[in-house]
Design brief:
This protein has 354 residues and is an alpha/beta fold. It has 11 helices and 15 strands. Helix 6 packs across helix 11 (328-339) and helix 8 packs parallel to helix 9.
Length: 354
C-alpha cells in the first residue's frame, strides 16, 4: 500500500486528488495539508511514502519546502501544478531539486485528459523511486581532446526517459560537445512543461536545445525535445532527417512515447543511429530500442544503480534491446567513443528496420 499525503492550499484540489487516488486499492491517502507547515507535522506523524505538492501556497512556497525536504527528510514528491509559463518553469526547477514527477493540476487541462491515470502513474513511479539527499555533482565525463575525430554528420542520437529523466538527460547532454549528432529526445512530461525543460537545457548545454516543431531539421549541434502531449517521429528527407509532430493514441500510457520515436528512428536512420534509454517507470522504449538494435544501431540502457526508477531500462535489457548497460556518468563518454573513428559502425546505405 502506497501512503500518500496531499499538500495543496485549494480545498477543491485536495478533494479531487483524494477522490481520484481513493479509487485504487494500492493507494491510501493518509492525510492532506493546506501549507508546508502543517505538512511538516503530518509527515512526522503519518510517515507517508509519497507527497503530492503544489508550488504556489501561503506562508511557504512549494520550492522552498521541497528544498528543506530534500536536505533533511528526503521523500518522493510529485509536483501538481497549474499550466502557466511561470509555474512550468518552477516545476522544472522542482525536478532539478529532487521531485520525481510533475503532473497538471485538475482544472488546468481539458476534460478529455485522464487525470486519474496520470496521477496514479505518477504516484506509483514516485513510490518506487530512489531518493537521495542533494549534493554537488562531480565531473561526469571527459571530453575528447579533439572534436574533429567525432563522426556526427548524418548520425542521429535518440534518447528516451521518464521518471528521473530530466536530470539524467541534463547530465548526458551537458557532457556532449557542441557539434554532437542531431539529437531527438522524448521525456515523459505534460504539455507546455517541455518548452521550459528545453529552455533550461539550452542554458547549460553546449548544444542548442529547443522544443521541437513539425518539420524541424535534425542536424549536428541541435537537440530537439518532443512537445508534451504530442508524438515525435523521425523521417528521412532527401539526404537529411526531419521530425514530424503528430497526435495519436497514448502508447504505454504516454504521449510523447519513446517507443514511437525509437521505432521511427529504426526505420529511417538504421545503423546511423544511437539509441539511449534512461531511467523511468514502465516499459516505454524497450521494444523501440530493440527495433533500433535490429536495424544496426548502437543501443545503450542506463544501469540499475544510477536509475531513479529502473523500469524502462530493465525492460529493454530483459528483451536484449541494449548493446551495453552503462552507468549514467559514463553514457556521454560511451556515445563519444561510438562516434569516434574507431567506434562508429560503417555502412554504405541508410535505413534498415525490421
Amino acid at each position: 500500500m502506497i501512503r500518500v499525503l496531499i499538500v495543496d492550499d485549494s480545498a477543491v484540489v485536495r478533494k479531487i486528488l483524494t477522490d481520484e487516488l481513493s479509487k485504487y486499492k494500492d493507494i491510501d491517502v493518509v492525510g492532506s495539508a493546506i501549507d508546508p507547515y502543517i505538512a511538516r507535522n503530518k509527515i512526522v506523524r503519518l510517515h507517508p511514502d509519497v507527497i503530492t505538492l503544489d508550488i504556489v501556497m501561503p506562508r511557504m512556497d512549494g520550492l522552498s519546502f521541497l528544498q528543506k525536504l530534500m536536505k533533511y527528510y528526503p521523500i518522493p514528491v510529485v509536483i501538481v501544478s497549474s499550466l502557466t509559463p511561470k509555474n512550468s518553469k518552477s516545476a522544472i526547477k522542482a525536478l532539478e531539486m529532487g521531485a520525481v514527477e510533475v503532473i497538471c493540476k485538475p482544472g488546468s487541462v481539458s476534460v478529455s485528459t485522464d487525470i486519474s491515470g496520470q496521477l496514479v502513474h505518477a504516484i506509483r513511479a514516485a513510490a518506487s523511486a530512489r531518493i537521495r539527499r542533494q549534493k554537488p555533482e562531480e565531473p561526469l565525463a571527459v571530453q575528447p581532446t579533439s572534436q574533429t575525430q567525432l563522426q556526427t554528420t548524418d548520425k542521429v542520437l535518440a534518447i528516451g526517459a521518464s521518471t528521473g529523466g530530466t536530470k539524467a538527460i541534463e547530465i548526458v547532454l551537458s557532457s556532449l560537445p557542441a557539434k554532437a549528432p542531431g539529437t531527438v529526445i522524448v521525456q515523459h512530461m505534460p504539455e507546455y512543461f517541455t518548452a521550459s525543460f528545453a529552455e533550461r537545457l539550452n542554458q547549460i548545454c553546449k548544444m542548442e536545445v529547443r522544443e521541437a516543431s513539425d518539420n524541424d531539421n535534425v542536424v549536428p549541434g541541435v537537440a530537439l525535445v518532443a512537445p508534451g502531449d504530442k508524438h515525435m517521429l523521425l523521417q528521412q528527407s532527401g539526404e537529411s532527417y526531419q521530425v514530424k509532430i503528430k497526435d495519436g493514441p497514448l502508447v504505454h500510457y504516454q504521449r510523447p512515447s519513446a517507443d514511437v520515436l525509437f521505432q521511427s528512428v529504426a526505420r529511417s536512420a538504421g545503423r546511423d543511429a544511437i539509441g539511449v534509454l534512461l531511467t523511468g517507470m514502465g516499459s516505454d522504449g524497450a521494444k523501440g530500442l530493440l527495433a533500433m538494435r535490429k536495424s544496426g544501431a548502437h543501443t545503450l540502457a542506463q544501469d540499475e544503480q544510477t536509475s531513479i526508477v529502473f523500469g524502462m531500462p530493465k525492460e529493454a535489457i530483459k528483451i536484449g534491446a541494449a548493446d551495453k548497460v552503462v552507468p549514467l556518468p559514463h553514457i556521454a563518454q560511451t556515445i563519444i567513443t561510438i562516434l569516434s573513428k574507431k567506434g562508429i559502425k560503417k555502412q554504405t546505405t541508410k535505413g534498415g528496420g525490421l
